[in-house]
Amino acid sequence: MVLKRCIAIVLVLMLALLCACSGGNQAANVESTHSLQPTESITDMPADITTTDITPTPTSTSADNADKYYREKYNITDETFTNIKQDNSFFFDIDGNGRMDEIIVLKSDTGDSMPRLMLIIENERGIASTQGFDYEPFGYKTQLADVDGDKQQEIVVNICVAMTGGWGGYLSKVFKYQDNKIVELFSSQNIIDIRFDTGFEGKFIDGKQFQVSNRFTGYKAKFKLLEEYGFYTADGKLPNDVDYTAMFDSFYTFEPVDIDNDGIYEISIAQYTSVNGHTDAQGAALSIIKYFPKNKEWKVIKATFVQTFDEANTAWWKN
User: Disulfide check for 116: which of 25, 40, 132, 255 has CB 3.0–4.6 Å away?
Assistant: First the structure.
């Protein structure tokens, strides 16, 4: 009987040690790969993320009380950011000091067609926040990745702000936490709505073909059209009075990827591509952008084009 008990105790200790080792591996993976969805609650986070200091919710569920609570707690002075609610919250050591920081997404729920989001980081040094940025309630994705090589994670956000035209409209941003401030490293659109230029150009050409090029990388290719278009002449020529240049939409994919396995992440972008007002999709323009901290600029370093959207979901940059 004593021998059986000893064997049982040894087995329990071995199992506990195995679980502890597995937990360590998971924590390393979570640091660079965990992707947070807007519907994901704090209870859905991996067990190795500390959740003991969750910000308490207001004692009353009234909209007025919630707005007042968050406005006072986070010192929000922007009067256009109204009817504030907490939309998401998770914990991560964003500054690499060994202590968990709370990352909070607040939503200005105005009831109109353009609510707004605000990003908050709270830790022992205080509170940092972004300005409210536009957001329609079609979803967003938040990921963490080191894009500038300083061993700290940046916050990569892609927001669906419209559902019309192609695959919808997106606003893509990268934020850095530095000196207890949230600094914007990238925005797909600036304050006068000029979109970040990925360098793609495309058009229908003679021979019933679609030509795509990228002026930053030198990429150039021709593709046979996937369907017949009535504006071509019988011998495959285009009318001279028609301009069928391509439209490259906003970034429906905006994902951190480490293409060279050096621990510094690039961003993979996919753009819905069409001609003649979104009515005839030609495929997806794919690019990789990289941040160069010395010059504080983003550059397109790889580019290609695919005619099927399944191809756009592959690690195409390895080819």
Answer: 132
